[in-house]
Every structure is written in structure tokens, then in C-alpha cells.
Amino acid sequence: MDNTVLKVDLLGTSLNIRSKESPEYLNQVIDTLKLRISQLKSELSVRDPLKLALIAALNLTDELIKLQNTHKNQASLSSAESSEINSITNTLIERINESLSDN
Predict the structure, then answer these.
(1) Within 10 Å of residue 52's Cβ, how many Cβ atoms?
(2) Cα angle vertex 15, ends 39, 30, to 5°?
(3) Alpha-carbon distance 2 to 51, whole Å?
(4) How far apart are CA 55 and CA 40, in angstroms?
């Protein structure tokens, strides 16, 4: 995919973003950031654009890390469940083998 260039106006600053992502995806990212900044503006008394951008970045990073940790925990639960299934399967195979050897 070719590089996409998208002009972004955010907190009084304009910049061009160049990415290999689609324009739709980039707009989704920008809209998410704008929404978070808007929410923070209404919740906080901070008006400095740089501070708002930093708080929004910290807020979104916190959310991302929590989601990643949840995903890791779910993966390890699946691993634990897999281990338990293997253990039960091996026990059943041993019992079947014992039954067959007794006959």
C-alpha cells in the first residue's frame, strides 16, 4: 500500500501525517484522539493544548496497556486450561491402557 498523507487540525495545530494505513483508519485514530481530548476538556480545568494532548496520550496509553494485560491474562488462562486438558487426557489414556492390559 502506498503512503497516505492526511492533514490533521488538532488543538490549534495543523500537521500532515504520512502513513501506510488507509485514510479511513487514520481518520478513526484521529477521531478517537479528538473525542478523548473533548472528554478531557469537559472533565478537567486544563486548557493548555500541550497539556491536554499529553493527558489524552497518557489516558489512551493507560487504556491500551490495560487491554494488552487483559489479553495476556486471557491467553495464559487458555494455556492453563490447555495444560489441564492435556493432564486429563493423559490420565484417561493411562486408564484405558491399564484396562486393556488387564483383559
Answers:
(1) 19
(2) 35
(3) 33
(4) 8
Grid cell at residue 87: 493432564
Beta-carbon-side half-sphere exposure of residue 58 (alpha carbons within 13 Å): 7
The torsion angles phi and psi of 95, rounded to 5 degrees, stand at -65, -40
φ and ψ at residue 9, rounded to 5 degrees: -115, 115
Half-sphere exposure of 53 (CA within 13 A, CB side): 9
Q: Report the predicted TM-score, pTM, of the whole model to 2 decimal places.
A: 0.68
Measured CA to CA, the distance from residue 94 to residue 98 in angstroms comes to: 6
| Rounded Cα gap, residues 95 and 15, in angstroms | 69
**Closest among 48, 52, 7 to 30, alpha carbons compared:** 7
pLDDT digits (tens, 9 = 90+) for 24-39: 999 999 999 999 999 9
